[in-house]
Amino acid sequence: MPASPAAASLALAQPPLPTVSTPEKTTLTIIGLGFLALLVAAADADADRARLSLYAALSLVSGGTLAWAWLKYGRQPAGLQHDNLWLRGSTSRGAVAWVTAVVLTGFYVLLYWYSTPDDKGNFGLLNGLVHTLDPFSQLLRQRPADQWFLYGTFYTLAILLMGGRALWKYRHSRYQRLRTGSVMFFQLAFAFLLPGVLQFFQQPEFYFTYFWPLKYDYLFPSSFEYLIRDGQALGVFMVVWGAVMSFVATPILTYFYGKRWYCSWVCGCGGLAETAGDPYRQLSDKSRAAWRWEVRLIYPILALIILVTIIVWLNYWLHGALLGSLADGLYRFYGFVIGAVFSGVVGVGFYPILGNRVWCRFGCPMAAYLGLLQKHFSRFRITTNGGQCISCGNCSNVCEMGIDVKQYAQRGEPIIRASCVGCGMCSTACPRGVLNLENGPREGRYQGSSFIHADSLRLLS
């Protein structure tokens, strides 16, 4: 049956995808062989052979990814190039994207619910991979690896490798280079190496870049007792650090710089989204219905963790007279539904389908807390110059938080949204310099670009 005139015209309107060069195919093949070696390491019962397979896998994946990034972006003129994103199956919810989502989701399901060790130290289907990291774990932490050390290693490696890709891709933008380097540094130094070094010296494991309400249990009585008992003076410092960062430093930093100081420069969740999740940022739903769901979910989740924290403390002060063991059950329920299912399985596993900031946009209580501060008390905003806007839509396409930036730019209105993480990608993608990230005085904050003060801090891409 011949194609309809409409289908024929559409086919003519969409040029064929450019062919992938032979060097790029070679590097992609190397990456594929690396993942195959990873499967071999997971299935091999011989520890030495499995470890060699793991080393080979990490070498192939790392070398192949960095080489591919250079071939893909390093040989082209500097500048943002998002051509053909909606034509490729890997970045437009095609078959490749769905396979990737299934693999990611499957890994998280195995990690959270099918890798709890038994009395013999068997970690289920992940057992082979976990024990291949024993020498590295002993070197860093003076203890055998577990499923969370495996996860932390893979998580950090993903940020570093895809961060390298982002540095090549956005090398023309000083802001993006600094921001990418920042999330790579904080993940490697503060979220991976430092907690391991603390354990090496028999100190409590502690993540200095995670605070309440994201790391909700850091303000629970059980954490206080554990840190002070096992960490002594350092433990007291950790308790004070967590409280000060949550209730003093966070409001002050957000007042001056908006939520971007954390969500786009420090947070590990944001770090993974900005690096490994960067190919999927255009998939974020820009509809008003999605915004309504965002409001319906993220603020009740913040309210829930506040309620859980209050109940846990009241129950502690009353020696269990308030809820008894139910308080612990409430905490475990939150950890399962929000901490595991939402932030892990859905938040990362659904990158290729729903975009790279699903968790940050719809579920993260820290993002909700920072968003309220940013919208109502911060100096941060994105100013626009409507007279220069050509309505190309690049800014809206790259917004990972589902903000229709173009609508603000066309009207010349500043963008002051609780959900904005200040990634600056809209400014980077704009061909006319219409959008500027600024930390100006609060006076005239909601007016257009004609009210910009001379002492505003411009962070141009």
From TrEMBL:
Write out the entry's keywords from A to Z. 4Fe-4S, Electron transport, Iron, Iron-sulfur, Membrane, Metal-binding, Transmembrane, Transmembrane helix, Transport
List residues traversing the bilayer. 26-43, 95-114, 148-168, 180-201, 233-256, 297-318, 330-354
Keyword Cytoplasm (UniProt): no
Signal sequence segment = none
**Taxonomic superkingdom:** Bacteria
Q: What is this protein called?
A: 4Fe-4S binding protein
Keyword Electron transport listed: yes
Q: Which segments constitute the 4Fe-4S ferredoxin-type domain?
A: 380-408, 412-440
Pfam families cross-referenced by the UniProt entry:
Fer4_10, Fer4_5
Its lineage reads: Bacteria, Pseudomonadati, Bacteroidota, Cytophagia, Cytophagales
Q: Which GO terms label this protein's molecular function in UniProt?
A: 4 iron, 4 sulfur cluster binding; metal ion binding
Record organism: Hymenobacter chitinivorans DSM 11115
- Annotated GO CC locations: plasma membrane
